[in-house]
Design a protein that fits this description.
Elements: H1 10-22, E1 115-124, H2 132-147, H3 183-198, H4 202-206, E2 212-217, H5 220-234, E3 242-247, H6 260-263, H7 265-269, H8 277-300, H9 308-325, H10 336-353, H11 361-378, E4 385-390, H12 392-402, H13 424-427, E5 433-440, H14 442-445, E6 447-453, E7 456-458, E8 471-472, H15 473-487, H16 490-494
Parallel strand pairs: 1-4, 2-3, 2-4
Antiparallel strand pairs: 1-5, 5-6, 6-7, 6-8
Helix pairs in contact: 1-3, 2-9, 3-5, 8-10, 11-12, 11-15
Length: about 500
């Protein structure tokens, strides 16, 4: 298995370090906050105020196109009140956000009398530019609007002076590197944040003669995320003590993979229940809310009618541009209700593509979950730190196999399920991470497993009797074992040969 070559530029990482120090958190309007202000959204925009580290003002993040055409601070919000934070409604196409739905009270602090012995993380890559397919859809839309010579009015009046948020198509699919939500900065600060929590485990991890291993699937944006994270967690000289192992995203790996969606052949080929089910279900739901938006834009600009794909591209640009420039003119084109629909459309997409809505979801996700369970049972001898970097399409199956936020009934495509647990924005936003902590709470309490999804401690249903609603390790292991028996053999269900690898073997120190 190949290892990552040295980082080509230490200067880039030094820059990230400086930025991280002066802008650990940022404020939308200014550095000053009203004394009565309290954090309602875990620290975003104007809510990041009392009791937080020093932060630079939003003005320090000036971008050449940030203020183009009279943009102002409110554009990050779209149409909505003060309590509306659009970052929670971008369906995974925007910056990282904390999980705030169905979380355990008390925050991420380790329960009294307990200590963390082992950490396992599965993380999505950090904030990125659009994929090539999505980017081309945006380019096509912008060309259509610009070439029409129409003087757009109303919500689209800004288009005349607006420029695409990337100048080179080679940037597509790669991490963003500008603004407060940049992927490079987010990856590095995540490393620093986790070092802050788990620094006491590093000496133990380094006590072995071999370097500390961590893993990334073979995608540039995933690898770069792991590299920046490594610099934040282990230090700029991380390659002296740690080694990043790259796991190919090829179909021949069978069950020995970080990306089972690429190796499960039936999942790829099954049009009705496989990968393609998600887009099909999303398009059906999308058709329920697009007509009203289309009509509104048509009334403002009678000379141009937009298709569902074009309107969807506009909504996507809100999040993607925000990760590059810090805000987007496309956000206020839509109402709060429009974005609630967009958020749900994205939930539908991932729920039915790689989550509980496909019969292959838990089957694929169990591979990493089972390998992690075995490391937990092995205990301290296995090592204390295990970090894996993947795509959101790999996190959804693992979350599904864990049965931690699965809804009792499948998500409907006729209306928004307002009380749903499955929320893409909070489960796997850009940089989204699920952390499994093995905590030891003394001889009487024993060892437990605590789940941290994007800094929101989340209890496992029917397994939360431990400190801080953690799950006893023995019960967790039995739970994972039962799930394996339920989903069946990976090779058989995926249509692979009997000589294909059946499980993950690389996840060890």
């Amino acid at each position: 298995m190949p290892s990552i070559p040295p980082i080509p530029s230490v200067v880039t990482l030094v820059y990230a370090l400086v930025v991280a120090v002066v802008a650990y958190r940022w404020n939308w309007i200014s550095q000053e906050c009203p004394a009565e202000t309290k954090s309602q959204h875990g620290g975003y925009l104007e809510y990041e105020c009392a009791g937080k580290p020093h932060q630079s003002s939003w003005r320090s993040w000036w971008h050449p196109q940030h203020m183009l055409g009279g943009a102002h601070a409110g554009h990050i919000h779209g149409h909505g009140g003060k309590d509306w934070n659009i970052l929670y409604h971008l369906g995974g196409n925007g910056p990282w956000v904390e999980k705030v739905v169905d979380v355990v009270d008390g925050g991420i602090a380790v329960p009294h009398g307990c200590k963390v012995e082992q950490v396992h993380m599965m993380s999505r890559h950090a904030e990125r530019y659009p994929t090539i397919r999505v980017g081309r859809r945006m380019i096509k839309l912008l060309e259509k609007m610009k070439q029409s010579k129409i003087a757009f009015q109303g919500d689209l009046a800004f288009v005349k002076d607006w420029e695409l948020f990337w100048s080179d198509d080679s940037l597509m699919e790669h991490l963003t590197s500008t603004g407060p939500f940049s992927g490079t900065l987010g990856s590095f600060t995540t490393g620093v944040r986790l070092r802050t929590r788990y620094h006491n485990l590093i000496p133990t991890a380094r006590s072995s003669e071999s370097k500390i291993r961590f893993w990334a699937s073979d995608s540039d944006r995933v690898i770069d995320t792991a590299r920046y994270f490594g610099a934040g967690f282990f230090g700029l000289d991380w390659q002296d003590t740690a080694q990043l192992h790259i796991v190919p995203e090829t179909s021949d790996l069978g069950g020995d993979t970080l990306t089972p969606g690429d190796t499960c052949l039936k999942y790829v080929e099954d049009v009705e229940e496989g990968h393609d089910k998600g887009p099909a279900m999303m398009q059906k739901y999308r058709a329920t809310y697009m007509p009203a938006i289309r009509q509104r834009l048509l009334e403002q600009n009678p000379k141009m009618e937009f298709s569902d794909d074009e309107i969807y591209a506009m909504q996507e640009m809100c999040g993607f541009e925000t990760t590059v420039r810090g805000s987007s003119h496309w956000c206020p084109v839509f109402t709060q209700e429009d974005f609630l629909h967009f958020e749900y459309a994205r939930d539908i997409l991932h729920y039915y593509r790689a989550g509980p809505g496909t019969q292959y979801g838990a089957l694929m996700g169990w591979l990493w979950l089972n390998a992690t369970k075995n490391l937990m049972l092995e205990g301290p001898l296995a090592g204390p730190l295990f970090f894996s970097f993947v795509h959101d399409g790999d996190i959804a199956p693992m979350i599904t196999a864990l049965d931690i936020i699965n809804d009792e009934e499948h998500l409907p495509i006729s209306h928004i399920a307002a009380s749903r647990k499955w929320r893409k924005s909070q489960v796997s936003p850009m940089g989204g991470r699920t952390i499994f902590e093995v905590i030891s709470c003394g001889e009487k309490e024993g060892k437990h497993v605590r789940i941290n999804i994007n800094d929101g401690i989340t209890a496992i249903p029917d397994c939360d009797s431990g400190p801080g609603r953690s799950c006893p390790l023995a019960d967790f292991a039995r739970r994972v074992q039962r799930k394996g028996e339920e989903v069946g053999d990976f090779r058989e269900k995926c249509g692979l040969s009997t000589d294909a690898p059946e499980k993950i073997t690389f996840l060890h120190q």
